[in-house]
Amino acid sequence: MTSTRPRFFLLTTFGLGHMRPFPGTWGSIPPVLVALALLAIGAGPQQHPLVFNGVMLAIVLAFSHVCVHQGDLAEAWFGRKDPSEVVADETAGQALVLLLLPLAQPHDGASWAHAIALLGVAFVSFRVLDILKPWPARGLQRIAGGWGVLIDDLVVAIPAWGIVQVVGRVLLG
Question: Mind giving me the DSSP string for the chain?
């Protein structure tokens, strides 16, 4: 059942949750694009950490809020636990991975390649962990309602964040 209800606009991350295949992947893309746009306008995490991290934190908080407060409604509407159309949890989790990104402002071809590579690592590491749901994330999905929709994605974002930090500081740094 597809919803055009306005209240699901943020839960489906502007309708991306209706995209097939892999709606969670579609829902993870916007924070990466926002990070890339911030880098492009010179508001990278090293030059303007309050702007960059503030935007990422706002995404985490806004999409987490909508999951927690409307998750029950979405489950009732779609008729199943953690419906695939609800991708606000992936959007929040991906933005969490991008907080404190160890990346200087790109200024030439090599540094833009570094930036794109690190954003790619952030995207892929989060998606792989979100799909695999390592302990304790899988068990957390049993939590009722909106928290059950959200919490597993925030939990898998933590090791994905660690991967990004290591890759950004050690391997690409």
Answer: -----GGGTTTTTTTGGG-SS-HHHHHHHHHHHHHHHHHHTT--TTTSHHHHHHHHHHHHHHHHHHHHHHHHHHHHHHTSSS-TT--HHHHHHHHHHHTT---PPP-SHHHHHHHHHHHHHHHHHHHHHHHH-TTTHHHHTTS-HHHHHHHHHHHHHHHHHHHHHHIIIII--
- The yes-or-no verdict on residue 137 having pLDDT over 60 is yes
Higher pLDDT residue, 69 or 107? 69
Mean pLDDT value across residues 123-132: 93
**Domain coordinates of the chain in residue numbers?**
6-171
pTM of the model: 0.87
Q: How far apart are CA 165 and CA 110, in angstroms?
A: 19
